[in-house]
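User
Class, as today's exercise, I want you to study this protein, comparing sequence with structure tokens, and judge whether sequence predicts the tokens.
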Amino acid sequence: MDEVARPGRPRRIGASQRLELLSLACEPAQTQGRATPTLDELVERAVERGVVTQISRSHLQRILQAGDLRPHRVRQWLHSPDPQFRQKVNAICALYRQAPKGSVVLSVDEKTGIQAIERKYADRAPARGRARRREFEYVRHGTQAFIAALDVHSGRVMGSCTDRRTQADLVAFMEQVALSHPKGRVHIVWDNLNTHRAQAVWDDFNARHDHRFVFHFTPLHASWVNQIELLFGIYARRVLRNASHSSIAQLRERTEAFMAQRNQAPQPFKWTFAGFELQTGEPLRFKHHANVRSTKKGR
């Protein structure tokens, strides 16, 4: 059956021209320079290349919207140059799946530059149809570094606040970790920070503790593999966001209260990512232990 003629004016710009316009929108505005062209620049470029004889910027915008194309939006990502990326991720995920017999797996990192900020004036309470109002001015009372270790299988967390993040501060914290786990292997998962990579320091530390510690380094630019980052995200939302701390002591007190509250009923994160298939690079998944509850419940 022949298609019945549709009412209205036929399209002035055909399907092939629309595809060319979409392709133009994906081109950079300048070589090695500004990435996103403006609508006016796209109109000029389309006419210069003979894609169309003329087109308004509003018409072009509608074509981009219909094609679900938003070239002005950019999502950043960070490539890991580590040649052993997949192998390292798989080894850490295996530890998350099951700790070696008689050992514990701890995810360790430092959250630095935490500001003890006090709001200069009190907030104005929200009302119907009006959001909470907050004065812009604030008073700084100094900064803290939060060093923490998360037991990925029990969900328990231990940590401490320090004025700085130095090698000595980290070694002092790891001595506390050693006291909390006096027997058996302790697997440490952390990133490639210079204080973590000081081999002479950690060789001496391990010698003092019967070589019980095994250090696992996440791939370069892959901090998402470290479960402690999930805990730091919860800490930022529950303790730091929209907070007013009148002193460093109060910031420390609330940080300690946060850890104590989580340790009352510790819940491990539900880590479902199993790593990568080494040949194809396809992501793998595994079924976690039945006693592990979901991440959302842990929040």
Q: What stands out?
A: Strands lie at 103-119, 138-151, 157-162, 185-190, 213-217, 273-276, 283-285. Confidence is low (pLDDT under 50) at residues 288-299.
